[in-house]
Specification:
Elements: H1 2-26, E1 48-54, E2 62-67, E3 70-73, H2 82-92, E4 99-103, E5 119-124, E6 131-137, E7 143-149, E8 153-158, E9 185-192, E10 195-203, E11 206-211, E12 215-217, H3 219-230, E13 236-240, E14 255-261, E15 266-275, E16 281-286, E17 291-296, H4 307-310, E18 324-331, E19 334-341, E20 344-346, H5 357-366, E21 372-373, E22 387-393, E23 398-414, E24 428-440, E25 446-449, H6 451-473
Antiparallel strand pairs: 1-2, 1-5, 2-3, 4-8, 5-6, 6-7, 7-8, 9-10, 9-14, 10-11, 11-12, 13-17, 14-15, 15-16, 16-17, 18-19, 18-22, 19-20, 21-25, 22-23, 23-24, 24-25
Helix pairs in contact: 5-6
Length: about 475
């Protein structure tokens, strides 16, 4: 009997545990009370369309509004800081109080919330206009007092939501004043030191100089120029507007830049006289922002290039070895065809080419660079080329490279490091290398590294050895029975 009673108690205990566990599992998660008095603001960040900051310590009231997706400073010419605009929306959109101080009556000055306190007025997309007054830090300095309007209560909120409203005016100004993506630039005009250069984009990251001469332009150099302009930042703000620009030699400007993008926007920047300082700075005026600023003076270094220096040394811009579908090499009366296949390069008869010579050949050809540009009127053995390399690319494009005479060139380069004085300047040594004259299609003659010519010679020797092996295997010829 006792055993039965104990068994019943155990069974009841197990059942109770199961029931309680089921209740805990099925109980829904608590829903936060969005109407809690401690939640001061609740809106989507994109719903903030305008805000005004009044009674700032410097006496400068500020008003910002989003127009066509971009923030503008109302009543002022300068562009507002994108960082500050994002910060305002981010810090306020779900602001919750850490503590409720309660009704304080006439004791607002105790919390820095008196009549001289900073007041912030918001405007949301739905037309509502929340507002609040920014107080002082609390005794711990990790939280700040705030009073929503017209509510008379005082709350304590996180420091990051309140401390930036009284930041210096310059922190509300955008430092990066010429904002565009280099890939979107279609045209760039550079007027530096009295000279003028104009560049156009003619393909994906492919550029051409059209003034003062028409020639392919070095992609890396052009993109470096675009990058320097796109990253232009103000080190200091001098004056709003464009009155008396001549004071800083900004009318018409000692140096001028203009960038046009795919969307039709045109960014214009002028640089004026140098300003004393360390590092050296220079006065600048940005048309879109309409403000005189200071920028670092080394900005000009990227633009002080001659047409010769900016000439594109990539003879097949945008082409790479992996894009080559086939190649034909002609040299000394021999014509050698190569075809790229999933399992490697093959001769014209379909047999595999052993070794890395075809890969080296197409890499040297497709990515050929000019070491020097030659006088177009000169004779370099290109009338009757020593060899030609015809490339066909996977997209159907073709290119012919003609190789002329070989030439020995002395090249200066840094010498070895002295182990006894590793920090001493390295000596300059002269090394003699072989180069060849070349021409792509009907372009101007150039001088290129000798690697392509050497690889052509290697391929001709390998083809000769293949022909010898084939002759030994088939003494009567491939068609012999």
């Amino acid at each position: 009997m006792i055993h039965r009673f104990r068994g019943a108690l155990v069974a009841l205990g197990v059942l109770a545990v199961l029931v309680i566990g089921a209740m805990l599992v099925e109980r829904p998660a608590p829903v936060p009370d969005l109407q809690s008095p401690d939640r001061l603001f609740s809106f989507e960040q994109d719903d903030l369309v305008a805000f005004t900051i009044l009674h700032r310590p410097d006496g400068e009231d500020l008003a910002f509004r989003r127009v066509d997706g971009r923030w503008v400073t109302e009543g002022r010419p300068w562009v507002p800081s994108s960082t500050m605009m994002r910060r305002a929306a981010h810090q306020l959109h779900d602001l919750t109080a850490r503590a409720d101080v309660g009704e304080v009556g006439a004791d607002l000055d105790r919390y820095g919330l008196g009549p001289d306190a900073i007041e912030v007025r918001l405007e949301l997309r739905d037309g509502t206009r929340p507002a609040f007054v920014v107080g002082d830090p609390n005794p711990t300095s990790v939280s700040w007092y705030v009073r929503p309007l017209p509510d008379g209560k005082v709350y304590v909120v996180k420091k990051s939501a309140m401390d930036f409203w009284q930041a210096p005016l310059d922190e509300f100004r955008e430092e990066r004043l010429v904002s565009f993506d280099a890939d979107d630039a279609t045209r760039m005009v550079v007027e530096v030191d009295g000279g003028r250069q104009v560049y156009e984009r003619v393909g994906e990251r492919v550029y051409r100089m059209i003034e003062p001469v028409t020639q392919p332009a070095d992609r890396e150099l052009v993109r470096r120029m675009l990058g320097r302009l796109a990253a232009l930042r103000a080190t200091a703000f001098v004056q709003d507007g464009h009155d008396e620009l001549g004071r800083w030699e900004l009318e018409p400007g000692l140096h001028r830049f203009e960038v046009t993008t795919e969307g039709g926007e045109t960014h214009r920047v002028r640089l004026g006289k140098a300003a004393p300082g360390d590092p050296p700075q220079r006065y600048a005026w940005v048309e879109g922002a309409d403000e005189v600023i200071l920028v670092v003076d080394d900005l000009l270094d990227s633009f002080r290039v001659t047409p010769e220096a900016v000439r594109d040394r990539e003879l097949l811009p945008g082409r790479h070895a992996w894009q080559v579908a086939s190649a034909v090499v002609s040299q000394g009366g021999e014509r050698i065809g190569l075809t790229n296949s999933p399992d490697g390069w093959r001769w014209e008869d379909g047999s595999a080419v052993s070794g890395a010579t075809p890969r080296r050949l197409v890499q040297s050809a497709a990515e050929l660079r000019a070491e020097a540009f030659e006088d177009p009127s000169g004779r370099y053995g290109l009338e009757l080329p020593w060899a030609t390399v015809d490339l066909t690319f996977e997209d159907g494009g073709t290119a012919r490279i003609s190789l002329g005479d070989a030439v020995s060139v002395d090249v200066k380069e840094p010498g070895p490091v002295d182990p006894s004085a590793p920090s001493a300047p390295r000596p300059t040594v002269t090394r003699t290398v072989e180069q060849r004259y070349a021409r792509v299609e009907d372009g101007a003659p150039v001088r290129v590294e000798g690697a392509l010519g050497s690889t052509v010679a290697d391929l001709v020797r390998e083809r000769a050895r293949k022909d010898e092996r084939d002759a030994q295997k088939h003494p009567g010829g491939l068609d012999a029975p």
